[in-house]
Amino acid sequence: AQSVTQLGSHVSVSEGALVLLRCNYSSSVPPYLFWYVQYPNQGLQLLLKYTTGATLVKGINGFEAEFKKSETSFHLTKPSAHMSDAAEYFCAVSDLPHQAGTALIFGKGTTLSVSS
Amino acid sequence: KAGVTQTPRYLIKTRGQQVTLSCSPISGHRSVSWYQQTPGQGLQFLFEYFSETQRNKGNFPGRFSGRQFSNSRSEMNVSTLELGDSALYLCASSAGTGGDYGYTFGSGTRLTVV
Predict the structure, then answer these.
(1) Quick check: A88 and A76 in contact, CB under 8 A?
(2) Per-residue pLDDT tens listing for chain A (116 residues)
(3) Shortest CB distance from B58 goes to which of A43, A45, A103?
(4) Do A49 and B99 touch (CB under 8 A)?
(5) Which element (helix H / strand E) includes B42?
(6) Exposed, middle or buried, B61 (CB in 10 Å: 0-12/13-18/19+)?
(7) Nearest to A23 by CA among A73, A59, A77
(8) Is residue B67 within a helix (H) or strand (E), and if so which, with residue range?
(9) Does position B22 have pLDDT exceeding 70, yes or no?
């Protein structure tokens, strides 16, 4: 069964610093991987996704993630944090990536705090 | 282009009652999924519908049910509400299958059971 582990429930950075949010997955098939962001009292917004092809994926708001099969990782990075990046971030994997009706299996989430 | 619309945004119900939540997907999206978000269990998949057919179901009791209409709008119903059903219920729609196109989420319905 597919699963996701997000290392660190809370990450704090200074404005302008590198953001690194860690995600490791377990999947019995080539995975589809996603990063979502959630602001307070809102739904989830897709930052980026990996399905096939290039392993370095660029998303919105300057975020990117690299799929590393050998490390079963899909860490999210941003070179320079902005105050508006403060939110909760979720990594997810599809349970049936190549079949219809797939569900997303989410990690527990990482809260990112950005200080000035 | 309108996003995923969920109604109502907030709901307060009493234990034992039933509740129906509504979701209108992005125009042209035929896949609708439902998720429950709680502080303790996180985000958990409830079910997925495509062209009025349930194709996948999560590990929830039979009190949780859903349906999809011919216009792709979806509803989920929870009967005999329990305190533990208090959660943010999120709906997501997708243009394709298998996650290829990603999922767009609505803002959710916050259900409080008292």
Answers:
(1) no
(2) 789 999 999 999 999 999 999 999 998 888 899 999 999 888 999 999 998 888 999 999 999 999 999 999 999 999 999 999 999 999 999 877 666 678 899 999 999 999 99
(3) A103
(4) yes
(5) strand B42-50
(6) exposed
(7) A73
(8) strand B64-68
(9) yes
Instruction: Tell which residue, A5, A7, A17, A6, has the closest CA to residue A113.
Output: A17
* Tokens of residue B56, six digits: 């996948």
| Distance between first and last Cα of chain A | 41
Residue of chain A minimizing CA distance to B33: A103
**Is A46's CB within 8 Å of B103's CB?**
yes
Distance in Å, alpha carbon of A16 to nearest chain B alpha carbon: 29
Residue pointed to by tokens 């809370």: A10
Give the mutation candidate from A25, A32, A41, A44 for the B interface (greatest B CB count, under 10 A).
Answer: A44
Residue among B2, B95, B76 at smallest CA distance from B34: B76
Q: Which two tokens stand for residue A95?
A: 């349970």
The chain B residue lying nearest A52, using CA atoms, is: B100
Please measure the distance between the N-terminal and C-terminal CA atoms of chain B and give it in whole angstroms.
Answer: 37
Residue A40, preceding bond cis, omega within 30 degrees?
no
Tell me the C-alpha distance between B100 and B92, whole Å. Answer: 14
Contact A76, A19 (CB under 8 A): yes
- Taking the C-alpha atoms of residue A30 and residue A6, their distance in angstroms, rounded to an integer, is 19
> Among A97, A22, A21, which Cα is nearest to B94's?
A97
